[in-house]
Amino acid sequence: MWDWNGTLLADLPVVVAATNVALASAGGGPVTVPEHRRHFRRPIVDYYAQVLGRPVDEAEFARLDKLFHDAYQAMLPGCRLTADAREAVAAWGAPQSLLSMWHHADLVPTVDRFGLTGHFVRVDGLRVRLGGGVAHKAPYLSRHLAAQRLEPATVVVIGDTVDDAHAAAAVGARCVLYSGGFTDPAQLRATGVPVVDTLLEAVDLARRL
């Protein structure tokens, strides 16, 4: 099972740029890509509060979230897939699915635009908007696998965040983490799950797991 943002889609620079649009509107200074990789966490409202150095209430978060998504969507056409994403998806050779914490209505046409839809038996994004941002991926992963009637122990999650590792562990799946995405590699290695530098390596290791 694949993650999308930061894993198959190389959108980290766009995410950071859109984050800075939101932060600037609240009087915050810009974050760099390395800073974002070290400090980003869920729920997103807590990340914004950390960067701004003050609490962020629900109303303010809703405003910041809209600014972020508007800026992200405006910059999305400039995004590309991760360098070996197409080869990695094609190389898997077994049923595969995709789960993202990005909004489902935006995710599905974007995956299709990149010509990857046919590779996945199921594509799921976030179907509800939650105040404060999505807390953790685990419950969504559980539902994603249940909808396919998959035993978690037979599934390998390929993602790029600590939350991907925690979600996999929570449901009883295995996990391989890609070091080129949203999270600093040192934090990924601290989870204790395998960390690789390319998606083709991730597929090769997932097969062996």
Describe this structure in words.
It is built from 10 helices and 7 strands. It is an alpha/beta fold and 209 residues long. The protein folds into 2 domains: 67 residues, DNA polymerase, domain 1, CATH 1.10.150; 129 residues, Rossmann fold (3-Layer(aba) Sandwich). The strands form 3 sheets. A 3-stranded parallel sheet has the order 5-6-7, sandwiched between helices. Strands 1-2 form a two-stranded antiparallel sheet. α6 links the parallel β3 and β4. The longest helix has 18 residues.
**Helix count?**
10
Question: Strand portion, in percent?
Answer: 5-15%
Mean pLDDT figure: 94
Helix % is 40-55%
CATH topology of the largest domain: Rossmann fold
CATH architecture of the largest domain: 3-Layer(aba) Sandwich
Query: Roughly how many Å apart are the termini?
Result: 13 Å
- The protein's oligomeric status is single chain
Could you give the count of β-strands?
7
Rg on CA atoms, Å: 16 Å
Number of domains: 2
Principal-axes shape call:
globular
Low-pLDDT runs: none
Please render the helix and strand layout as text.
Blueprint: E1 9-10, H1 12-25, H2 33-39, H3 44-52, H4 58-75, E2 80-81, H5 85-92, E3 96-103, H6 104-113, E4 120-126, H7 138-147, E5 156-159, H8 162-171, E6 174-178, H9 185-190, E7 195-196, H10 199-208
Parallel strand pairs: 3-4, 5-6, 6-7
Antiparallel strand pairs: 1-2
